[in-house]
Write a structure and sequence with these properties.
The protein has 441 residues and is an alpha/beta fold. Helices cover 32% and strands 15% of the residues. The chain contains eleven helices and 14 strands. The protein is globular. It binds pyridoxal-5'-phosphate.
């Protein structure tokens, strides 16, 4: 296997993460996971704060979900390519849970959902350009795989392709702006609204250190879109069913026109959804005037069963109360440990999805603000935590995630491990300006 992994984000070998310690330079092989814990093939047990990059909201192999899925697989089949009552039931749950969801379409991955969402927006508005933000990730497809982790030397607003093989001609369909920058976005929209079909945004930056929107920012985006005939797409692949039952749109009380959901929707089974206003969603259909939506595994009964059981549990809302309490204690423990070690550590994000940064910068509002962050400190902490049986991701532009299965015992172990790790990491000398290493997604 080229690179040795099957998704580049799993590559802990990335030079960016290899500054401190040999363990940070290896990709782990997993054996199994249960509840809040994961085991590697060498028999090491870890409390898992990666949770498969976010999907596992209830805990690994959550019994109610697993039993329902096993029953489906053993007795009722895995794919029909026919409609089912189950898809109506899950669609109904989504329309009740998600503020903007008047209609629903299912697909399998976050990348498929965002690809469908921008196709829908282009078909509805009859315009082609998509405005996206630096530091945001919407999947690996060519139209959106720009400027997620551009080198900080990239000229402002220059779309930076994150992969070879993306035709250069596609650049003309992308505008890149800095997030949370009211003035610049408004100027660009004023100048180019005739071309812009949609603004796509993660409502919390789940792929660049859990940066949250400034007060009024998401509402500003919605109003700007309404004023200029542009559709606002919230990519809630990470935030959906994780930061609140209805996603970030519930948390911040702002409805986009279209939204994409995946990950936590089905507690770790591949499934995604495109949701939105009826009139817009009705642009999906058959024939050359309509947006084509297809996929052999769309709405397959295995993923739908997982989603149905997951959503039943999430609707009780105690999952969110639990995560708020757990993360509150975890984050204040981390900050306390950092203060004792005299390290200027910040926590960004919300319960269920947050990240720890070492930076002197007062305010972190966009990707550019991460420029002077000392990632080597994080990498050292991550490495020391691993030795203590605590697994956070090697990349701190990823998030730290918690689940319903993380319990008081996990919290105690995690807090004392963080204290030890931060203490050790604080004794290392870090270069004032971190060495720049170009990063590919
Ligand atoms: C916000 C966001 N959108 C889309 C995607 C792509 O999802 P997938 O990896 O399921 O294709 C991701 C993946 O992490 C994501 O974080």
């Amino acid at each position: 296997m080229p690179t040795g992994v099957n998704s580049n984000a799993r590559l802990w070998r990335n030079p960016r993460f290899c500054y401190v310690g040999p363990a940070a330079a290896a990709s782990l092989f997993a054996e199994k996971a249960y509840g809040s814990h994961i085991w590697d093939v060498d028999g090491n047990e870890y409390i898992d704060y990666r949770l498969g990059f976010g999907p596992v909201i209830l805990g690994h192999s959550y019994p109610k979900v697993s039993k329902a899925v096993a029953d489906q697989v053993l007795k009722r089949g895995t794919v029909y390519a026919l409609s089912t009552e189950l898809e109506l039931e899950v669609a109904d749950r989504l329309t009740k849970a998600i503020p903007c969801a008047e209609m629903v379409k299912f697909s399998n991955t976050g990348t498929e959902a965002t690809a469908h969402a921008i196709r829908l927006a282009r078909a509805y508005t009859k315009k082609n350009v998509i405005l996206k933000f630096e530091g945001h990730y919407h999947g690996w497809q060519d139209y959106l795989n720009f400027s997620t982790h551009p080198p900080y030397t990239t000229p402002e607003r220059e779309p930076f392709p994150q992969s070879a093989g993306i035709p250069n001609e596609i650049k003309k369909f992308i505008i890149v702006e800095r997030w949370n920058d009211f003035h610049s976005i408004e100027q660009t929209v004023k100048e180019r609204h005739d071309e812009i079909a949609a603004i796509i945004t993660e409502p919390i930056m789940g792929n660049a250190g859990a940066i949250t929107p400034k007060p009024g920012y998401l509402k500003f985006l919605r109003e700007l879109c309404d004023r200029y005939g542009i559709l606002l797409i919230f990519d809630e692949v990470k935030t959906g069913f994780r930061v609140a039952y209805g996603g970030a749109q519930e948390l911040y009380d702002v409805k986009p026109h279209i939204a994409t959901y995946a990950k936590a929707i089905s507690n770790g089974f591949p499934m995604s959804a495109i949701v939105g206003e009826r009139e817009i969603m009705d642009t999906f259909g058959v024939g050359t005037q309509k947006a084509n939506h297809a996929g052999t595994y769309n709405a397959n009964p295995v993923s739908l069963t997982a989603a149905n059981e997951t959503l039943k549990i999430l609707a009780r809302k105690d999952v969110y109360r639990h995560m708020k309490k757990y993360c509150g204690r975890l984050c204040s423990g981390i900050l306390q440990a950092a203060r004792s070690a005299n390290m200027p550590v910040k926590i960004l994000g919300v319960p269920g999805l947050f990240q720890m940064l070492y930076t002197e910068k007062e305010e972190i509002n966009d990707y550019e603000d991460l420029r002077n962050e000392i990632t080597d400190f994080y990498v050292k902490v991550q490495y020391e935590l691993l030795k203590e049986g605590i697994m956070i991701d090697a990349d701190n532009q990823e998030c730290i995630y918690t689940s319903f299965s993380h319990n008081a015992d996990d919290l105690d172990k995690t807090l004392s491990a963080f204290k030890k790790a931060i203490d050790i990491a604080s004794k290392t000398k870090y270069p004032a300006t971190p060495p720049f290493v170009e990063l590919s997604d």
